Design the sequence.
């Protein structure tokens, strides 16, 4: 009887894994939180419970997406390359989470103009002349202001 039960339980878990796309462990954990034991007759109830959890997860998703998008926007940086005036693309890999200075890539030249701009910023912070001429200098260099724009 025990082995039959176990098999039936395993089958149910596999069904749930396929249906919800969660790991076996996650499904077992969710079921354990809610139910003390497994009863094959209650499988529809378990599936319903899991479905509710899944729906909740989906309901959270737009919020999570909005949060991610906002973060991406904050990390966007100038829309115009300060060095050459070309459009830029956000480059989150270069986002500086300590200074909150956004990362971006110059659409015309690539990461080089971003790096030149970074070097210029260091020079500016030190009160020294910049090394690389900027055709579209960003007027405001406030580390806490992430939405700096060339047109501002
Ligand atoms: Zn550029």
Sequence:
């Amino acid at each position: 009887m025990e082995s039959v039960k176990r098999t039936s339980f395993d089958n149910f878990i596999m069904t749930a894994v396929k249906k919800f796309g969660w790991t076996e462990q996650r499904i077992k954990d969710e079921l354990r939180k809610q139910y003390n034991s497994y009863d094959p007759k209650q499988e529809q109830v378990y599936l319903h419970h899991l479905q509710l959890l899944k729906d909740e997860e989906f309901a959270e998703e737009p919020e999570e997406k909005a949060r991610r998008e906002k973060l991406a926007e904050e990390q966007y940086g100038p829309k115009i390359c300060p060095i050459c005036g070309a459009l830029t693309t956000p480059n989150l890999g270069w986002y500086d989470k300590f200074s909150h200075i956004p990362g971006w890539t110059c659409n015309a030249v690539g990461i080089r103009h971003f790096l030149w701009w970074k070097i210029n910023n260091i020079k500016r912070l030190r009160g020294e002349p910049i090394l690389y001429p900027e055709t579209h200098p960003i007027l405001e260099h406030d580390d806490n202001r992430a939405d700096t724009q060339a047109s501002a």
Summary: Confidence is low (pLDDT under 50) at residues 141-152.
